[in-house]
Amino acid sequence: MTERFRAGAGRLCLDFIRTLRYRGTPSELEELPDAAAWGAWIDQLGPFSTPVHPASADDARAVREAVHELLTTSARPSTRRRLNQFAALPVPAPSLTPSGELRWQASDPASAMLSLLARDALDLVTSPEFARVRRCAGPECGALFLDTSRPGTRRWCSMEICGNQAKKSTYRAKAGAS
């Protein structure tokens, strides 16, 4: 099954801000245009075992932009306040089913997911890992990712996509110059 949303950036909050794909380019694409898309993102990347049906995606997009600002610039006081407010919301609670499976529950799963995302962003920006947040070198990408490579020199958010495209471009340029 092909996943609808990209994952693998190294932190949940980094995967979340990638829902504005190709940020800042002419190809920019909003992946959370409505509540159904936000619910699909939660279903794919969140902890809940049953589908989530949020009423709106407005708060999700607002939190996403606040997280992006926090990670890429000197966040304004209003941005910090917004993230602190969402981080203070209740988070999902674990429970053990009679069959021994772990399930996550929340009275409002969409708000609980926003709380998890805000908390993850606040944790990241105050951790040593923050020094390893990189912007993808792909000219059309620009996604942020956590560089977990030993030397800390990873250039692309995904070797399979952006890295492969860069290598193909380099090869074509060399082949054309010959």
UniProtKB/TrEMBL annotation:
Q: Which residues form the Zinc finger CGNR domain?
A: 132-174
Matching entries from InterPro entries are given as: ABATE (IPR010852), ABATE_dom_sf (IPR023286), Znf_CGNR (IPR021005)
| Pfam families referenced in this protein's UniProt entry, alphabetically | ABATE (PF07336), zf-CGNR (PF11706)
Mind telling me what this protein is named?
Answer: CGNR zinc finger domain-containing protein
Whose protein is this, by species?
Amycolatopsis nalaikhensis
